[in-house]
Amino acid sequence: MASDYSKSSNDQVEVDEQSTDGDVLSVRQRLEESVREATALYRASSALSSDLDLDLLLDHITEALHESFGYMTCRILLVDRERDEMVVKSDYQCAAQPSGFALKLEEAGAISTVIATGEPVYVPDLASDPRFNRSDGETGSELAVPLRINNEVIGVLDVRSKEIDSFDERDLRLLTSFANNVSVALRQARLFNLISKAKKEWEATFDAITDAIFIYDESGRIIRANKAGMELSGLPINELLGSQSWAPSGTISGETLRPAHEALKTGKRQTVEVELAVGVAHRSLYITADPIFDERERAVGAVETVRDMTALKAAQKKVMEQQERLAQSDKLRALGELASGVAHDFNNILSVILGRAQMLQSQITDEKICRELNIIAQAAYDGGRTVKRIQNFARVRTDQDFEIVDLNAILCESVEITRTRWKDDADRAGIQITVKLELNDTGAVAGDPSELREVFVNMIINAVDAMPAGGTITISSRQAGEMAQVTISDTGQGITGEDKGRIFDPFFTTKGILGTGLGLSISYGIISRHNGQIEVESAPGQGTTFTITLPTTQARDAEETESTARPTVCARILVVDDDSTVRDLLYDMLRAFGHAVVAEESGEAAIRRCLQEEFDLVMTDLGMPGMNGWEVARAVKKQYPNVPVIMVTGWGVELDKGHLAANGVDMVINKPFEVGQVINCVAEVLEAARK
Fold first, then answer.
1. CA–CA separation, 224 and 240 (whole Å)
2. Can you tell me the distance from the alpha carbon of 188 to that of 119, in angstroms, rounded to the nearest whole number?
3. Are 204 and 197 in contact (CB under 8 A)?
4. 467, CA 20 to 30 Å: which among 223, 320, 602, 604?
């Protein structure tokens, strides 16, 4: 359409004075159309600027086109290149292909051409245009223009009319302008959707983080917190946001120390460990605060991360306790191996000394010499007791004939035994130490009362030593499931973490020259031999608590043992020992009491002798090169089931009774032995065999 108007210097349209009324009407129509176009573009622009929701935005565009220009149908379609389809995203008065409808590109008519060429396509007559095969019988005209983002065709703006040749250059210009605006809007909407999606993902991730996170602004006030942070704080959202601390007042140790504020102030990462007290519960927290910088490297905020370390610390503590227990067991196991070797060799030597001294005593009448021999015998006997204490300390003794004990009675006895320390000595020193007993039923416990008493006395004395200014010792007992539990607590100085890991080590002491470092080591060995456990809880300035647990049992499980000397009965006895001094001692000792004795230095030689001669009794050492005592006992029992076997060994205290019986051993004589002990044991087993 030609334009019949021009612009004057002051931009006002001047109508030629010679124009006809028709010319005026034509100008008026063009002005009205321009106003209508401008209005439609304004409405579209308003929609584009007000809506970021893609579906709503496109609906506003098609609605504006229809209402402003009367297009029969208006559609916006976007390309789905993965599926090779065009998808209707918005439609106006197009019931056959509503929003969401998908068309294959090759079936989309003019739209396909627009996608392929990137140029507008005008179809004046849908029914007769040979380029498009319309099987649906549609008539009228169609105008389709491309939608572009960065020179890529992403869709089509398509309008139709029932009239043939209904569109002109003005429509093409108008739709092209609309298409440009729609393309811009699509780009903005896509960016908005990407940002919205990223925001939702960030928020979901932010809230999914199990550590509490707080974000601070430049003034040090909280502007955001994740879900874990809200739960940790416990404050309502309206109180938390805008505050300078997420922790309620008085709940956190060192509250004046605020890592986020320090990070803002210094521009450096801040870390701190604190204790959060909520009611009676305490939580260990590890806090990290990092500054947030702007483009000028100025701290404009901070991110504070709070990790709850309570469960981790509890687990670490449990692991450390187990490691300490294993380390202690390893130490005592190594000491036990050493003690076993020492006990065997020492007991052989002491057996010869004690036995020979006693035999000489029976042959000499000189009082002075007898007195000297008695000293030698007593020294050897004491040496044997010392070896047993070494084995006791190293937890290698199993010769305990446990009995049912009353733990509460032993605890009361231990308190009385130590009364001079916690009462009399304390009174003289001008301090007050109180002992509180909180005793409850513990169930039946099998044990050695003297050893358990030694443990409890040692614990009480240690508690007294730990309270030089006085205090309270609390002793309690109870049954916990199948275990009896005894706790001994004091209000003393406590033990450092470093020392706590070493208190059960042999010879370790915190008492200087006043302590031997053996009390707790021996106590540990005693409790372990009772199949129990001993644990300690302590901290400097907070006192110490020892907890001892022992397995409960039934009264019928305790067995009484009795050893009665038997009169000597002469017999043929085979003695087997690789140590000639011990072998000769037994030979002489047994012959002195009328027995016929054959001595062999090895297990192999002893078995060969058994096949050649008959014996009433076999006495064998345990640890021998080649064939050991177990093998000798089994071979004898296999050949002569009724012949008793006595094991004479320096390892006797380490041997289990069940294992002895299973290997054919009827009795054990521990080295060092006395003459009377050997003769009585021989008489006892011989009498039992004859029965």
1. 9
2. 23
3. no
4. 320
Query: For every residue of 390-428, which 3-state class applies, written as one string?
Result: HHHHCCCCCCCCCEEECHHHHHHHHHHHCHHHHHHHHHH
Q: What is the tens place of the pLDDT at every residue in 501-540?
A: 667 665 555 554 444 445 677 788 788 878 898 888 888 8
Same domain, 488 and 547: yes
Buried b (16+ CB within 10 A) or exposed e, 299-325: bebbbbbbbbeeeeeeeeeeeeeeebe
Q: pLDDT digit string (tens) for 388-425?
A: 656 665 555 555 567 899 999 999 988 988 888 899 88
The answer to whether residue 563 sits within a structural domain is: no
Is 293 inside any structural domain?
yes
- CATH number, domain at 641? 3.40.50.2300
Between strands 403-405 and 445-447, the pairing is antiparallel
Q: What are 405's strand-pairing partners?
A: 445
Q: What is the C-alpha separation between 226 and 211, in angstroms, rounded?
A: 9
User: Domain check: are 164 and 279 in the same one?
Assistant: no
Domain span at residue 297 reads 209-308
Model pTM score: 0.42
Provide the 3-class DSSP secondary structure of residue 348: helix
Residue type, 163: E
Question: Do 644 and 686 meet the contact criterion of CB atoms below 8 Å apart?
Answer: yes
